[in-house]
Amino acid sequence: MTAIRVRDLAVSATGRRLVGPVSFELPAGSVLGLRGPSGSGKSTLLRALVGLLPPGLDAGGHAEVLGADVVRARPGDLPSLRARAVLVGQVPVVFPASVLANAAFAVRHQVRAPKGELRARCRAALEEAGLWDEVADRLDAPAHQLSIGQRQRLCLARALALDPSVLLLDEPTSALDPTATAAVEATVASLRGRRTVLVVSHDAAQLERLCDDVVTLPDPFRAPP
Predict the structure, then answer these.
(1) What is the DSSP letter of 136?
(2) Which among 12, 160, 195, 211 has most CB atoms closer than 10 A?
């Protein structure tokens, strides 16, 4: 099964191409890397895949994510997709609340379930993100007290609590030190075969370690040969 199918996808602003064109397929259960020169639009491409392009940017070509045509979809068509294909941003954003409340933030808005069931889902997500052992005794502590690497894994747990089919990771270790980077990489590596992951990174060695395949975005500012 193909989770994401992209063909000649490009993003433009006022007629000037900013991203692409790019084509690739992402089989379910695999990890695909996206790399490219600075300014090639790697983060913009991820946003295009879940219909979160800023005003003034337009996508063209074809992009199908979990069966949804994200290029031609109407604005109201994609919120349900974004609960199944979850974008985790480059900066680990935590809310002014407890560790547990942060892990539950997205799922409690998407799933109607008893508090105990939601708590169990959050625990499973924290375990999957490799964070449970580090926070089990301080679930009620403020999330901002966590290290930046722990906050990044908390953001991953928040996404995993939704039980997504696809994870879109935007430079998940760019702000981290080597120890925290290794912890996040271990989490991503553990997802292979269980989750479908599309990861953007400027680190070619990291993509080599984590990914089954890597796609390189063209430089939109370089004239074709």
Answers:
(1) G
(2) 160
